[in-house]
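Dear colleague,

Thank you for sharing your sequence with our group. We've completed the structure prediction you requested, and as agreed, I am returning the results in plain text so they can be pasted directly into your records. Please verify that the sequence below matches your submission; if there's any discrepancy, let me know and we will rerun it promptly.
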Amino acid sequence: WLDNLLTKYSKKMFIIFQHSPIEPPREETKLSMLNTEKYREILKKHSNILLMSSGHYHQDSIKQDEDGIWHISAPAFIDNPHSYQMIKITYDENKLKSLKDITIDVTKIKV
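Please find the predicted structure tokens below.
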């Protein structure tokens, strides 16, 4: 279904949200996804994927793979430091202008 959707809307850019990452947030992290290679084959066929966002490991990470897809691993709100992540995307005429990671430590917010 994903292959069909990415093909049907090939002129649109996609952001994919999923629980487990396809790229480990850290080199020492082992992946726990099933059918990772088949999933990667589908992704490699398409140039309209801007970024993939995941959590699972509770590690803050942002990196770009060899195909130009950004992989963002979000921190967990429950773990120290208690933080959440916002991503600011500046996009113009089918081109990414900037991608900025804004991680906020909620223990430093004065209420």
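Summary note from our side: The CA atoms of residues 104 and 110 lie 12 Å apart.

Kind regards,
the structure core
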